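sry for the spam today, last one i promise. struct tokens for design, 369 residues
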């Protein structure tokens, strides 16, 4: 028996909606919203030319194309214009954060980056993930190779004795359990191998485990290189004993951790270098100036053309640079998507770098191109 797909009718008069778009929309940068019959935003998109993008929805094939499925679920379309394509990217992200539309996935962006997370709590756990939605984690990265990041984290876990079990695994520290209960055994062989301190069985004190987890955070933040020194000692000791097989294993671990150190340093540098004043030309001459610091847009204003406007923007800059930055390498889950957007923009538009100027040079009066 052959199954046939049931095609749902659109929720609105598509020819009429198309006519409204054709008559009113313009070929300008902007963002648009697909609205369902209950008035909820179900999709937010951006476009370099709003009119062309919206009309493309009406030529998409239903139900094969996602664009057609979104249109069939919509009852209305609204749109706003912005000065430039860069502004459209930023506004789209802001709108997605605000409405959380069901048809938007991963902020409309392909996720090629991975992050190391460190959970909060008494028995912190390190992991590698592409998701940045959790609020109960500290994030480090981004990394371009999730596989190599995972190898490095496995070595770091082993050296510091941190757990890599499921988060739902119960954790108990000495003195927290039943004094008359039988002694527990570790849930996995890592404790017997000496690569986990066994918080699942009350085999490590809470303060000691926290200390090891804090060491991992300092390592990920670039504040210390330990425990890589232990790897070097073990590798040298094995070589001196002419145990070349063991030396090779320790060398593999060293290389995994060495890659992680280098990748973390590159990530921090990539974020730190995104600190400048950026001028973005507007499609209709409505240029804007952006204060970008550590990969985030801290302020945005019409490009200052008079001394008063320039002085006002200087006050915004002075206020921003007076604010302390977060610890090195530590990312805020709420701003990671914007940081990735900024990094991607300047990677895909190398010509945009010519319209940037270091903050200190702008403050002494140097002009932006």
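last one done:
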């Amino acid at each position: 028996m052959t199954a046939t797909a049931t095609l749902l009718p659109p929720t609105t008069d598509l020819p009429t909606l198309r006519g409204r778009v054709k008559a009113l929309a313009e070929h300008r940068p902007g963002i648009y919203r697909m609205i369902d019959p209950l008035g909820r935003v179900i999709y937010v998109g951006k476009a370099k030319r709003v009119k062309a993008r919206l009309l493309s929805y009406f030529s998409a094939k239903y139900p094969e194309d996602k664009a057609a499925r979104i249109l069939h679920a919509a009852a209305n379309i609204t749109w706003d214009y912005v000065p430039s394509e860069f502004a459209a990217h930023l506004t789209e992200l802001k709108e997605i954060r605000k409405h959380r539309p069901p048809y938007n996935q991963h902020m409309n962006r392909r996720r090629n980056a991975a992050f190391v997370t460190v959970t909060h709590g008494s028995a912190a756990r390190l992991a590698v993930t592409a998701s940045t939605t959790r609020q109960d984690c500290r994030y480090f990265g981004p990394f371009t190779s999730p596989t190599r990041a995972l190898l490095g984290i496995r070595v770091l876990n082993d050296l510091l004795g941190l757990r890599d079990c499921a988060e739902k695994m119960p954790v108990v520290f000495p003195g927290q359990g039943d004094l008359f209960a039988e002694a527990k055994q570790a849930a996995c062989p890592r404790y017997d191998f000496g690569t986990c301190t066994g918080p699942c069985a009350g085999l490590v004190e809470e303060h000691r485990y926290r200390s090891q987890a804090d060491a991992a955070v300092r390592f990920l933040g670039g504040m210390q290189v330990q425990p890589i020194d232990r790897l070097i000692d073990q590798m040298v000791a094995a070589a001196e004993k002419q145990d070349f097989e063991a030396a090779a294993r320790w060398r593999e671990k060293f290389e995994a951790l060495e890659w992680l150190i280098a990748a973390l340093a590159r990530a921090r540098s990539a974020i730190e270098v995104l600190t400048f004043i950026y001028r973005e030309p507007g499609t209709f001459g409505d240029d804007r100036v952006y204060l970008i610091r550590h990969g985030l847009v801290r302020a945005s204003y019409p490009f200052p053309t008079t001394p008063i406007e320039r002085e006002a923007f200087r006050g915004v800059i002075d206020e921003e640079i007076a604010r302390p930055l977060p610890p090195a390498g530590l990312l805020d889950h709420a701003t990671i998507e914007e940081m990735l957007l900024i990094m991607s923009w300047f990677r895909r538009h190398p010509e945009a770098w010519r319209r940037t100027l270091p903050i200190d040079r702008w403050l002494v009066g140097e002009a932006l191109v």
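The chain has three domains: 14-108, 114-266, 273-363. ok im logging off now
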